[in-house]
Amino acid sequence: MSAEATKPLASRLWTFVKPHRAGLALTFLAYLGAAGTEWFIPKLTGYVFGGGFERDAFHLAWIPVVLVGLFTVRGLCSFAGQYLFQWTLTRSVMDFRTALVESLLRLDAQVYTRMQSGAAVTKVVNDPQQILWLLGNVGMAALRDGLPAIVMLVFLFQLNWRLTLIALIVTPLMGWLMRKVNHRVRRVASQAYDAQLDLANRVEDLARAWRVIRQFGAVPVERQRFAEVAQSVRRNSLKTSAASALAQPASQFVASIGISLILVIAVWQIRTTGEGAKAFAEYVTALLLLISKLRHLSDLSQPATQAMVIARGCMELMDAPKEQDQGTLELPGPAKGDIELDAVQLTYPGATTPALDGLSLRFAAGQTTALVGASGAGKSSVIHLLLGFDHPDAGAIRLDGQDIEQLTRASLRRQFAVVSQDIVLFDTSVADNIAYAQVRDEARLEAALKAAHLWDFVQTLPEGLETPIGANGSKLSGGQRQRVAIARALYKDAPIWIFDEATSALDTESERAVQQALEAWQGRKTLIVIAHRLSTIRAADCIHVLGNGRLVESGSHAELLARDGAYAAMVRAQSAEG
Ligand SMILES: Nc1ncnc2c1ncn2[C@@H]1O[C@H](COP(=O)(O)OP(=O)(O)OP(=O)(O)O)[C@@H](O)[C@H]1O
Which regions span the lipid bilayer (predicted)? Predict the structure, then answer.
């Protein structure tokens, strides 16, 4: 756990506001100015009607000037107050969001497998705004009612310190009750927040899976599921409101004990001494004013608790385990591309059997090596290890003889271009997707597009290379999406290429073209191909057959057929399928 994670929530939140505290101080001054004019206006009115300006026409002319002036100052102050508050809020929210995104970008691979994207969106987009807005308003209201409450308390002490001390006897009881109420509010507000995240995840699913939903005629099913989660959000929000509504009656109940005590003592004093009725009336009036301020302050506990509950959710994201980059070595340039797995063992957290069980194999530099095996055999796990997304529990992986654990993640990943089964595209232009995170070079773009058999298609697009391709490439066909991903890998021009089922969505002609492009690079790049369609890897220099995380056999297509083992059986099975 980071040192940051052990700090109290409030002080962690303050770190986002602190750089903008000048805005906060100016907000305070502006509101103070507005409050000052509020006090001036009745004073002035009193002065006018008290005959202050009667004597002299010159003074009379000042009335509208001063009044309009005061209202103008008040307007300016309250505008400045609101503006400065928003200025501070928006900047703090931006810093908060940036810190959350920074965390999101660096999470450990295992965290992503558990995380639902609806919850991540809520935590980064909505929560920082809501937390700081709630706390900002609580803070302002606390100032508005808290300052007069303190003034009133001092006044009460001056009037009668003994009575005031007696009134304060109920303070521990009040504190205890408020803690009880707050505890309940926090518990139900946590449930409400979790329900809210569930709701966001459901909506995210509805938007993402709309085709499947309609294809299965599942609109009523999804409506029902949504209604259940929405119902739970409603119920929990109501519970939170009910719990926080307890705060007021509870504090009033305790306050009434204090007032009764004072009344009994004071009336008894007046009766016995016959003195002090006037002072007592003054005292009770001030006390009632104080209580009304305290009542407003007790109303602030709910939004403050709610903000803290949401903040805890955000901090969970901020404190989630990050990817460890313990490597210190940088490869000086492109690797030769010789990869060796040596007795690699990998068991995923929570799994009962290892995904890779003492696996030893080699991807020779400049050669094409295929990985085949039944679903779940461990092919993708090998790729995740090569890219440093997971780490072997035992054994080692060496790149050009160097243990990859000693390389920085950035240096390791620069050596690979990957086209995976799940194609991930960005909601930007064709060109931005292909030259992703690289310097844009028109000639290289054209070469990559031509090699991926996309160039002619891009010429037909309304804005050519600059045409947006929609969320995750939704404006493209399956084959086009795959070709954009292939062009992106080609553009990166890394020494090792990984094609994971990369040609599965291509029509025969495009597949042949991509195969030709790959063949053109054969011998110059280390190619690792994962294919279920064995016809696509016949020409590979070496084929490794995996089964249950172990190497079953290795050899060329011809050698493996001659051996008549697992590979030959897979080939026979696929030819029988036709
Ligand atoms: N994040 C994970 N957590 C737990 N188990 C996992 C995880 N990823 C994979 N596995 C398990 O590890 C084993 C190997 O999975 P892997 O994805 O490497 O297989 P594969 O050969 O690539 O399969 P396919 O051809 O279906 O993609 C499987 O039993 C799988 O269920």
Answer: 21-41, 61-85, 131-155, 161-178, 253-270
